[in-house]
Amino acid sequence: MSKLITSPSNPFIKRINSLHEKKFRVREGLFLAEGMRVVTEAVEAGVAPAYLIHGPDMGDHPVLKRLAEATEAAGGEVIETSADVLRKLSRKDNPQSVLGVFTEIGKSLADLDRNTSYVWIVCESLKDPGNLGTILRTADAVGAGGVILIDNSCDPYSVEAVRASMGALFTVPLVQAKWEEFQPWLRSGPGFLVGASLNTEHDYQAIDYPAPTFLFMGNEQSGLPEPYEQECDALVKIPMRGKADSLNVAIATAVIVYEVLNQTRRK
Is the pTM of this model over 0.90? Predict the structure, then answer.
């Protein structure tokens, strides 16, 4: 049964609203996911919200009923609120009618089994949450083992990153680690590290990608640092026939990782 909270000044509403800021997400260990579709994908992936917040007149919606049952079965709480409060929580004039509050779901390197997939995506100092969300969607699409964020990448639990992932945050294992942790972990078992770089003549389609391949993508502006490139087993680049010298990092990731997929399919 839903608990009714309609006051914007309610302490619970203020607490949830604070999750738009990283320091409060870190303190609470919680993050926001907007929309019935995204929350449904989370529940179908076995991740139920700690709080399921919905607008008025939604009580009889069949999908919401299933989400509420899953939330309560996992020990979560269902909250009904007003349209005004939903606008406050979403910070949009036309908010979604459903909002989920989830516990952070990141894994550690020790949790990963590199042999469960032919390809993994590694990102270094990725700054744009939209790019991260798109990369997570791409990882889901190709069946990647997971996404590993190296060094000072953007917060994967920001509202922008969660929204851009379109639910992939809940289906793709995600790890945040320092290079000093990742490099020895990678070399402790099988793994072919391929860096995307302008400092090579190797076309991305001209090399073989053995399983498991770890596709290493650099920062949007500066690319991979030279010491990291030197640790790669191969460097590849995408040919550019126009005036631009590079692609958006999320698009470049998709182009290369689909080549890895296509080679695996042909084998």
Answer: yes
